[in-house]
Specification:
Bound molecules: 1,3-dihydroxyacetonephosphate
Strand order of the largest sheet: 1-2-3-4-5-6-7-8
Strand content: 5-15%
Distance between the termini: 10 Å
Number of strands: 8
Shape: globular
Number of helices: 11
Low-confidence stretches: none
Radius of gyration: 17 Å
Length: 251
């Protein structure tokens, strides 16, 4: 049985004061009997302090990005070892905003994936098509290409300690989520692809859905057979709402 995972990607939001209030609200609102794993991904500068705020809870800490290099003259970058050092267990790689706004290629994302695993961070590999790509019937091609870039470098065995997040770009921050059926179609395809290479990893790898997840649609999305939780942006900034999404992931 795959343990559901609900991750909050705060993106570039928050402040020390707001984060403290958000985490406090979340700790109050999360059900103690919850079976889902909960992960928070604050901006780099708030990682340490957020880690302190959640240290007596089961909530995990993750980063939104990582440098592909190990150390050295890379001004403005943050290494996987540094993320590990401040308490991260997870890191997002290949978020569509990184790919689209900052020009991250499949090759660079694969290097970041390797860098994360080299420090025992679990990469959350984000994949997903744009609206143009979906309307052009290229969803499967795009998602396959994004996953193949990782498989080519790391092999299927690496997916045993990774998470995949399907985030259709057209659903991110738009209020227009993929329908449970649309998401399931892609999730099923991804799981089938991994299972064809390794049946055990195919059955165990967690595949999250992201893109306008809200308390009102989470249960329907998470009830699909191949959707193992969510990667949540805007709704993760509201404690009550995010806690309700986490509860929707409970078995
Ligand atoms: P929204 O939930 O705000 O659509 O963002 C999704 C996302 O990009 C999470 O990584």
């Amino acid at each position: 049985m795959r343990k559901p995972l609900v991750a909050g990607n705060w993106k570039m939001h928050g402040s020390r004061v707001d984060n403290a209030a958000l985490v406090r609200g979340l700790l109050d609102a999360l059900k103690s009997e919850s079976t889902a794993e909960v992960l928070l991904c604050p901006p780099y500068v708030y990682l340490w302090e957020t880690g302190r705020l959640i240290k007596d809870s089961d909530i995990e800490l993750g980063a939104q990005n990582v440098c592909a290099e190990t150390q050295g003259a890379f001004t403005g970058e943050v290494s996987a070892a540094m993320l590990r050092d401040v308490g991260c267990r997870y890191v997002l790689v290949g978020h569509s905003e990184r790919r689209q706004i900052y020009g991250e290629t499949d090759t660079l994302v694969a290097r970041k994936f390797v860098a994360a695993q080299s420090q025992k961070l679990t990469p959350v590999l984000c994949v997903g098509e744009t609206l143009d790509e979906r309307e052009g019937g290229r969803t499967v091609d795009v998602v396959t290409r994004q996953i193949d870039a990782i498989l080519a470098v790391s092999g299927v065995a690496a997916l045993a300690s990774a998470v995949i997040a399907y985030e259709p770009v057209w659903a991110i921050g738009t209020g227009r989520n993929a329908s449970p059926e649309q998401a399931q179609e892609v999730h099923g395809m991804v799981r089938g692809k991994v299972a064809a290479l390794d049946a055990t990893i195919g059955a165990s790898v967690r595949i999250l859905y992201g893109g306008s997840v809200k308390a009102s649609n989470a249960r329907d999305l998470f009830s699909m057979p191949d959707i193992d939780g969510g990667l949540v942006g805007g709704a993760s900034l509201k404690a009550e709402e995010f806690a309700r999404i986490c509860a929707a992931a409970d078995h």
